Amino acid sequence: MNDLVYLDPPVEVVATSPRLEMILSRLRSGRMRPFRASAETSCAGADAVLLDVRSTDAELIQRLAEQSGRNFRPVLLLGEGVDPNRFSNALVIPRDRDLSVLRGRLEALSRRSARMSELDLRARSAAAFGISLLEHRAETVPDLLYLGDGSARFLALQAALGERGIAVTAAFSLHTAQDYLRQKRFAAFLIDLTPDMRHSERLAEWLAQARPRAEATPLFGLIEPGQPLSGVQMEIANRLVEVFQHGSRLRDLATHIEMLGRQHVDRTALSVGNQELAPITDPQTGLFSSAFFQHHLDAQIALASDRGEALSIIVLRDPANDPLSCDERARISGLILSTLRETDTPAALPDGSFAISLPATAYKGAAHICDRLFRQMKRVAPALCERFGWRITEKRAYHDADSLLTETVSGVYQKSRAS
Q1: Interior CA angle at 388 toward 383 and 393, to 5°?
Q2: Are residues 221 and 288 in the same domain?
Q3: Is the predicted pLDDT of residue 354 greater than 90, yes or no?
Q4: Which of 2, 52, 105, 325 could form a disulfide with 15 if both were Cys (CB 3.0 to 4.6 A apart)?
Q5: Alpha-carbon gap, residue 196 to 113, rounded angstroms
Q6: What's the domain range around 200?
Q7: Same domain (yes/no): 244, 293
Q8: What is the DSSP-derived secondary structure letter of residue 100?
């Protein structure tokens, strides 16, 4: 099969002619796979849905907003006039010409959708064990990290946001930005893209390196309307989740950033190593317990089946079944925690092995994560790297939590992936 268009991200389009044909054409030119929405379209799917505000019936928009709830389906609002806060996971596209460069922003929105779904599901799994997690509240004040050269406009914007209680930490060099990231977590990065911006290439490289550690942090962009951007700057712009224009009135711009900053503020995640989570964690490693893992894996499988998404698990163990010392178990659990994404769920199994569930991740993505883990293990614990093997299984339609885990644990383990 030579036509690889099926690899492009699908987008369900809700619009009417003649705008429908224009939207489909521009999305295809932007390497996306658009298709017309059916009459029964809803917010229950996993693929992004684009609503053309100018040609979509207001009652349909209202119905989809009411269905949004906890589905977190990516919603693209083409045009202005609809409050994105009516949806659980929406992105505003103010101009038709932005459709052809939408792919990067859509991928960021889809990652955010997967993260929000997993954190919500993890909170519900924790509730089954009697643990209540604090929900994100609109009153939570977000911290933003500014990346740019600085200007009088930025200082005015920083003051306007400060009046609203929004803290903006300015990093005028990448070294300073790296120091700030070691000290705290930010609700979003605010990137000032101007035609005369210095070190655009270094910023793009730094963002590529920082994203694995701050994958859940959205990228906001400040762009001068009508000003051309370089090729590197366009690559950065394609990864932005939200775009703001410098030409807007300062008060309106600050209000818009405040609203979206509070919308994206980091939710409390269920993480290991917390004493309050002792009922669902393994006391020796700090990873999740086997009981919690199996309960949560069942919920992940059900969600992945409903949304048509991939789900994979990794099992790490010593095929010789030699016992591990407490120090060795602690070292492996530390390596796992430092390598995984926030939405991955690691657990210690009773037989001494370690399992990791990877939502919205196919076999190839799981292999990439496994490769990264074993390369890190080879650097810091080469003896353990020689002993341990790995197995990956991607969920199929016939799997439940027990069969998926049993199939993975009982197979032949591959070794020397990091060689």
Answers
A1: 155
A2: no
A3: yes
A4: 52
A5: 34
A6: 136-264
A7: no
A8: G
